[in-house]
Design brief:
The complex is a heterodimer of chains A (about 325) and B (about 325). With about 325 residues, chain A is mostly helical. Chain A contains 14 helices and 2 strands. Chain A has a two-stranded antiparallel ribbon with strand order 1-2. The longest helix of chain A is centred in the last third of the chain and has 27 residues. The two termini of chain A are about 20 Å apart. The relative contact order of chain A is 0.19. Chain B has a single domain, classed as ABC transporter involved in vitamin B12 uptake, BtuC. Chain B has 15 helices and 4 strands. A two-stranded antiparallel sheet of chain B has the order 1-4. Chain B has a two-stranded antiparallel sheet with strand order 2-3. The chains are: A mainly alpha (about 325), B mainly alpha (about 325). Chains A and B meet through helix 6, helix 12 and helix 14 of A and helix 7, helix 13 and helix 15 of B.
Chain lengths: ~325, ~325
Amino acid sequence: MALLRRSETVIAGILLLAMVLIGTINPAFWQLDNLFSLMRSNVIIGIMAMGVLLVLISGGIDVSFPAFAVAAMYLTIKGMLALGYNGVVLPLLAATLMGLAFGAVNGFFVYKFRMIPLIVTLGTSAMVRGFLLGVVGTSMININKMPTALIDFARTDVVSVTKADGTTYGLTAMVLIYLGLALAMHLVLRYTMIGRSAYALGGDPEAARRAGFDLRKTIFFIYCVAGALAGFAGLLHSGMIWLANPRDFVGLELDVIAAVVLGGASIFGGRGSVLGTMLGVFMLVMVKNSLIIMRVDTTWQLVVVGLIVIAATALSAWRDRRRAA
Amino acid sequence: MKTQMNIRSLINRDNNIVQLLVMTVLIFAVMTALSPDKFLRYYNFESITYIFPELGLLSIAMMIAMLTGGIDLSVVGVANLSGILAGVLFHKMAGAAGIADAGILTVLLGGVIALGTGLVAGTVNGLLITRLGITPILATLGTGQVFTGLAIVLTGGPAIVGFPTAWAFLGNGKILGLATPFVLFAVIAALIAFVLSRTALGINLMLIGTNPKAALFAGLKRERMVLYSYMLTGVLASVAGIVLSGRTNAAKSDYGTSYLLQAVLIAVLGGTNPAGGRGTVLGITIAVAALMLLSSGFQILRFSNHLIDFIWGAFLLLVIAINAYKNRTR
């Protein structure tokens, strides 16, 4: 019975129902290559969602991570081209550290000046994007210039299947990276002091402070990790699409926040789980992809995502108020 | 002794206004020094009075939402949707005479539709926030997406071009030698200032923002007041949409996307407390003027739009830091 009452179970149920529905409307949904490509689309949004989950649990919000992701990605690739360096591990590390440094700025403003995270992250987002496009450059780096090592790394498959007509398709190994990061986040949130302090901060900052949690450490940890995950995901994304576009990820913050809230994280802070977030990400990606399969005009995508945000937040608000009452 | 106290309280109360004025004069002086021949031309200031009202209206709307500790991230979406719905109506009703010569009744109907859009959008926001208890950030983030999405669905992406002449007058005409949108802004700003400082609604909003629990125990109808404030925000956003579509003679789903950040920045810069309870129309007006001078100065100095975005972001963070520094004793 306890299993039935968990919000993850409910989300999984809705997800299965939606899959059956979409599959009935268009059986092509169940084809293995569609499922593989769905999982592939989960990777980048999913990694970013882990960071946003952490921020939402702490009672904050972050709209700057897409800007951080695109800046880390573009600067790293520009740097690789300038140095003539062709590798995987060091660039990913560099992008992650860049994201971490950006995140530290968020953390500094949120902690030091007690400012509403939304306003801080709006500011840092505009600064980072403005700097990138105004100073670094606006031109795309196409496949002919992209570092080959990154592309080769990102096209690794876990399994690959050959179709009857000779074309092959596979499940990208990037899914494993996503799963690994999700597992790490789960362990941190569940079993470490810093993870628990994020929940405490989101539950009640004053109570957390009096209970002896170090809020400065917690806030910096939260925003640094969110930035680092965004930076990592940004570079991985450019490897997966063989392109570095300095105008990428515009409006992505809404998709990711929608996915995390859909996954059962509370909009008031203090609640949320990695498993729920992964289900929420899958749901969002699936709905967006299926709009195309179901031949819904793509102009409706924004409306659908917006409605999902409203519905998911309304449900979350209703659930949490009932619990509080 | 007594007069001294009065002067001191006056300075304290208007401390922020005085600072803003000093900042505006400073910006003016620096820009004049950097490019005297281009910045000081009459044309420059005239063009500012045409662009200023859109941003000013959106910033006042943002300030009203912030009075109760909320925020409205859907203002730009509402503004665009209002302009587009009016544009769609004009295109549907345009007879053989063409859109430009549409009758005064058609234009009035368009105005009603645009303002109605703002009212409905604001009501939706207000109900989501008060009835369903969604936090304002997420509620308006979602509805803003829906409004922009509907605008894309209606237009299919490209801009709706061509508005009646009478409509365009609201955006780029002249009344007594002054820009129509500027006159419109002055009237609306005075009206809002009156509502906020002299009516029950305004006082209620300030009290709710200062201390929600105390306001509740004092018997204030919190839900209704917050709902009204978001309705007002929505209507102001749609007026901005009317002015914008009148000035550019077009309406598009992604016009003015950078206005969102600027509206938040101006609201905070103009002395509004994002946590609620404090904010004045006068502060907003001076802050908009300061930023418009700054932005026109940068444009004259040939800064790219991206760099200006960077500067807005940096400015916002700087203002936060300064405000925190000023309030550190509390």
